[in-house]
Amino acid sequence: MSKQLLSLGVIIGNRDFFPDSLVEKARTEIINVLSELSIKPILLETTDTKLGGVETYKDSQKCADLFKKYNEEIAGVLVLLPNFGDERGVADTLKLANLNVPVLVQAYPDELSKMNVANRRDSWCGKISVCNNLYQYGIKYSLTSQHVSFPSEKPFQNDLKDFLAVCRVVKGMKNIRIGAIGARPGAFNTVRFSEKILQRNGITVVTADLSEILGRANKLTKDDKPVKQHLETINAYAPKGETPDEAMIQIAKLDVVLNEYVEEYALDATAIQCWTSLQQNYGCNVCTSMSIMSENMLPSACEVDVTGTLSMYAMQLASGSPSALVDWNNNYADDENKCVLFHCGNWAKSFLPDIEISNAPILGTSIGVENTYGALDGRTPAMPLTFGRISTDDPKGIIKAYVGEGELTNDPLNTFGNRAVAQIGDLNGLMHHICRNGFEHHVVMNASKTASILEEALGNYMGWEVYNHKG
């Protein structure tokens, strides 16, 4: 998934006793700024209202009608305040449009050399009034990093890019469909979740019996055209290493069926039973297929960790890049702010420059290494890190999450599987929060710095309980 282009509704606030020329200039400026960022603006024409601004109730009705016309397209609303603005006009527009999308409130700064009647803005004060009214109306909104800022300057444009990411997360999370393939492994109570709580939040879980998937895979042969095609795709994706040809065919057959299932049920993500029924009853690991799906922005989590793959999807929306499900696995020597992240190997290729198809030695000790081919081997090098986890807290009847940022490092790590070393400020405090609040041992990593975006999207707009670990 690339960072898809989005449309923004734009409300330009106005107030009759402030200079109208400021509204006219703001309209031209924001159209140019959004055009440079490849964002489609939905806003009133200058002939619809006075200079295309929103001031009176009739202005609000016209702007709301315009927004309703583009209801399916608008991902968020930008409120511009080139002068004090009319707080009722802004709030009424959003109430009448009833878009239920993120709202960013911007205000222009005054300049000391332009504080006369013809140029004075008072937007600093007007923004407070607009936000006060939005709060009264129960409309959720976001703020720029600086209280006032010019749209043409970098601080605001960075805020706008972050806001677009918030819009992507909110829009994507409201209609996600997750395939839960197989039963939760009996020994993994940690990945329990509530389908009903998720459904109340717009997240649909589509279940499938693992035997149905394996049965369909077993009916395929190495000579079937789809199997040959998927085998070519897998060979192009990662070196096979010492993986036997028979195991590669098994992996390809399973990959065919999983892709058919995703297509058939219009799934955005999957969580698959991989421990240990698949190895015992089919004879390979599904990690390679999961890695390919995650790399192609269809995140896939092991051990039927549905909220784990939901977390992967949220981070993917925020960053526009793949995510990986990992274990908080080991301490790193005696460094209190470093730890080892590990899985036996289903991470997206983006995290594994030295990727190779291999086996799963730990699982192989109990069921035979020959039944575990399809796991990936590779070390993640230094890169930015956003980590986090979404969970249903069933006793409380809520969805909760934690997020934070750190770094992945190049520190030495002599082991197998998919592995990385993470450096996180106050790591011990984070572990206390995870343990005290009953979070899972699985966490999600993404090569980005998007914790604040996730906090805003999941906490402010989705209404979930979010802890942002500042370290």
From TrEMBL:
Keyword field contains Isomerase: yes
Domain L-fucose isomerase C-terminal span(s) in chain numbering: 341-467
UniProt-listed CDD domains: L-fuc_L-ara-isomerases (cd00578)
Domain of life: Bacteria
GO MF entries: isomerase activity
Keyword annotations of the record: Carbohydrate metabolism, Isomerase
Name recorded for this polypeptide: L-fucose/L-arabinose isomerase family protein
